[in-house]
Each structure stands twice: as C-alpha cells, then as structure tokens.
Amino acid sequence: MSVEDKLKALHELQTVDSGIDRIKILRGELPLEVQDLEDEVEGLETRIRNFETEITALQEAISKKNNEIVTSKGLIKKYQEQQNHVRNNRNSIRSQKKLNSRHLK
Asked: Is 28 left (phi over 0), alpha (psi -120 to 50) or beta?
C-alpha cells in the first residue's frame, strides 16, 4: 500500500471517527432534551387544568347571574302589578322605589 493510499485511508478513518463523536455527543444531549420537553408538556397540562377550573368558575358565575336576572324580572313584574293596584300616594311612592331599585340591579 502506497503512502497516498495510507493517507486517504487515514483521512477516511478520521472522518468516520469524527462522525461517531458527533453521534455520541448528540446521544448524550438527547436525554436532556427529552426531559425539557416532558417538563414543558407538564407545564402546559397544568395551564390547561387551571384554564378548565377558571372556565367552570365563570360558568357558575354566569348561571348565578342568570338566576338573579330571572328573580329580578319576577320581582319587577310583581312591583309593577302592585303599582297598578295602589290605593294611595304613599303606597305608590314605596312601590315606585322598589321598582326603580330592581331596574338598577
């Protein structure tokens, strides 16, 4: 084998060896990257749970307010009927105040 052939073989061997070294480095970093991704997924899952909890709380608040609206509408109707049947001015003023307070809510 000539010197030129030996040098070419040595160069090829060094190239292959460098490639193996790069693979070993990447393989060594892979568990760290996997751990980072797992941590990120866990953080995102926690955020999703927090959002779901917040959504549930907001839905309950909306439902409560809707019930209050229904109750207030019923009271407004009641006060309007009372106002239509008022016999004296004093009862009329009291009824009107109740009606106005319900409209404001």
From this structure: alpha
